[in-house]
Amino acid sequence: MYTIGQVLFVVLSKKSQVYPMQVVEVITKKTLKGEETRYLLQGGTDKTSTVFLDEVDGEVFDSAEMTRDILVRRATAQVNRLVDTAVQKSKEWYAGRDPQTIQGLPDLAPPRSTPQLEVVRDDDERATVVLPDGTVAKIKIPSV
Prior knowledge:
The chain has one helix and eight strands, in the order βββββαβββ. It is an alpha+beta fold.
Protein backbone atom coordinates (compact mmCIF):
# COMPACT_ATOMS: atom_id res chain seq x y z
CA MET A 1 0.00 0.00 0.00
CA TYR A 2 2.71 2.51 0.99
CA THR A 3 6.42 2.39 0.18
CA ILE A 4 9.47 3.18 2.26
CA GLY A 5 10.38 6.84 1.81
CA GLN A 6 6.87 7.86 0.77
CA VAL A 7 5.56 11.06 2.36
CA LEU A 8 2.03 10.92 3.76
CA PHE A 9 -0.08 13.93 4.76
CA VAL A 10 -2.01 13.64 8.02
CA VAL A 11 -4.96 15.89 8.85
CA LEU A 12 -4.66 15.84 12.63
CA SER A 13 -7.87 15.23 14.58
CA LYS A 14 -7.07 17.45 17.55
CA LYS A 15 -5.53 20.39 15.65
CA SER A 16 -6.37 22.25 12.48
CA GLN A 17 -3.12 21.16 10.93
CA VAL A 18 -1.80 19.05 8.09
CA TYR A 19 1.36 17.23 9.15
CA PRO A 20 3.73 15.48 6.72
CA MET A 21 5.07 12.11 7.83
CA GLN A 22 7.44 9.75 6.05
CA VAL A 23 7.19 5.97 5.89
CA VAL A 24 10.51 4.77 7.34
CA GLU A 25 9.78 1.08 7.85
CA VAL A 26 7.31 -1.53 6.58
CA ILE A 27 6.81 -4.55 8.84
CA THR A 28 5.01 -7.59 7.44
CA LYS A 29 4.07 -10.33 9.89
CA LYS A 30 2.89 -13.73 8.62
CA THR A 31 1.15 -16.13 11.00
CA LEU A 32 -1.35 -18.96 10.85
CA LYS A 33 -4.06 -16.31 11.20
CA GLY A 34 -2.88 -14.45 8.13
CA GLU A 35 -0.63 -11.61 7.08
CA GLU A 36 -0.43 -8.21 8.76
CA THR A 37 1.46 -5.17 7.47
CA ARG A 38 2.26 -2.20 9.69
CA TYR A 39 3.90 1.04 8.66
CA LEU A 40 6.29 2.98 10.89
CA LEU A 41 6.22 6.75 10.28
CA GLN A 42 8.60 9.54 11.18
CA GLY A 43 7.30 13.05 11.74
CA GLY A 44 9.56 16.07 11.54
CA THR A 45 13.34 15.94 11.64
CA ASP A 46 13.74 13.84 14.81
CA LYS A 47 14.75 10.47 13.39
CA THR A 48 14.24 8.75 16.76
CA SER A 49 10.58 9.79 17.07
CA THR A 50 8.40 7.31 15.19
CA VAL A 51 4.80 6.14 15.36
CA PHE A 52 2.86 3.33 13.73
CA LEU A 53 0.40 4.42 11.05
CA ASP A 54 -2.53 2.73 12.81
CA GLU A 55 -1.79 4.81 15.94
CA VAL A 56 -1.89 8.18 14.16
CA ASP A 57 -4.81 10.32 15.37
CA GLY A 58 -5.96 11.76 12.07
CA GLU A 59 -6.84 11.12 8.45
CA VAL A 60 -3.98 9.98 6.23
CA PHE A 61 -3.65 10.94 2.57
CA ASP A 62 -0.94 9.90 0.16
CA SER A 63 -0.68 13.21 -1.71
CA ALA A 64 -0.80 16.90 -0.91
CA GLU A 65 -3.25 17.47 -3.76
CA MET A 66 -5.69 14.89 -2.41
CA THR A 67 -5.38 16.46 1.06
CA ARG A 68 -6.03 19.93 -0.32
CA ASP A 69 -9.01 18.73 -2.36
CA ILE A 70 -10.80 17.08 0.56
CA LEU A 71 -10.18 20.05 2.88
CA VAL A 72 -11.46 22.55 0.29
CA ARG A 73 -14.57 20.41 -0.31
CA ARG A 74 -15.30 20.23 3.41
CA ALA A 75 -14.76 23.97 3.90
CA THR A 76 -16.96 24.75 0.90
CA ALA A 77 -19.74 22.51 2.19
CA GLN A 78 -19.56 24.17 5.61
CA VAL A 79 -19.70 27.69 4.13
CA ASN A 80 -22.70 26.69 2.00
CA ARG A 81 -24.47 25.26 5.08
CA LEU A 82 -23.81 28.44 7.09
CA VAL A 83 -25.18 30.70 4.36
CA ASP A 84 -28.20 28.44 3.68
CA THR A 85 -29.03 28.46 7.41
CA ALA A 86 -28.78 32.25 7.52
CA VAL A 87 -31.10 32.57 4.51
CA GLN A 88 -33.64 30.23 6.16
CA LYS A 89 -33.54 32.23 9.40
CA SER A 90 -33.95 35.50 7.52
CA LYS A 91 -37.11 34.14 5.85
CA GLU A 92 -38.51 33.03 9.23
CA TRP A 93 -37.55 36.13 11.20
CA TYR A 94 -38.29 38.77 8.59
CA ALA A 95 -41.37 37.43 6.77
CA GLY A 96 -42.33 39.43 3.73
CA ARG A 97 -38.76 40.46 3.00
CA ASP A 98 -36.78 38.32 0.60
CA PRO A 99 -33.14 37.93 1.55
CA GLN A 100 -30.89 39.86 -0.77
CA THR A 101 -29.26 37.47 -3.18
CA ILE A 102 -27.20 37.82 -6.29
CA GLN A 103 -29.04 36.08 -9.09
CA GLY A 104 -27.25 33.83 -11.52
CA LEU A 105 -24.28 32.90 -9.35
CA PRO A 106 -23.76 29.22 -8.58
CA ASP A 107 -23.08 27.87 -5.10
CA LEU A 108 -19.53 28.25 -3.93
CA ALA A 109 -17.50 25.44 -5.46
CA PRO A 110 -13.90 24.39 -4.85
CA PRO A 111 -11.32 25.36 -7.47
CA ARG A 112 -10.64 22.73 -10.11
CA SER A 113 -6.90 22.88 -9.64
CA THR A 114 -4.24 25.23 -8.42
CA PRO A 115 -2.24 26.66 -11.32
CA GLN A 116 1.50 26.29 -10.98
CA LEU A 117 3.67 29.37 -11.29
CA GLU A 118 7.15 29.31 -12.75
CA VAL A 119 9.50 31.31 -10.53
CA VAL A 120 13.07 32.14 -11.55
CA ARG A 121 15.22 33.88 -8.95
CA ASP A 122 17.24 36.63 -10.63
CA ASP A 123 19.23 37.41 -7.48
CA ASP A 124 18.65 37.61 -3.70
CA GLU A 125 16.23 40.53 -4.02
CA ARG A 126 14.42 39.95 -7.33
CA ALA A 127 12.61 37.14 -9.11
CA THR A 128 10.77 36.64 -12.39
CA VAL A 129 7.37 34.93 -12.24
CA VAL A 130 5.61 33.42 -15.27
CA LEU A 131 1.85 33.32 -14.66
CA PRO A 132 -0.36 30.53 -16.09
CA ASP A 133 -1.59 32.81 -18.90
CA GLY A 134 2.01 33.50 -19.99
CA THR A 135 2.32 36.95 -18.40
CA VAL A 136 5.83 37.60 -17.10
CA ALA A 137 6.21 39.68 -13.95
CA LYS A 138 9.31 40.85 -12.12
CA ILE A 139 8.92 41.04 -8.37
CA LYS A 140 11.04 42.40 -5.56
CA ILE A 141 11.51 40.01 -2.65
CA PRO A 142 11.77 41.82 0.68
CA SER A 143 14.67 40.74 2.85
CA VAL A 144 13.66 39.03 6.05
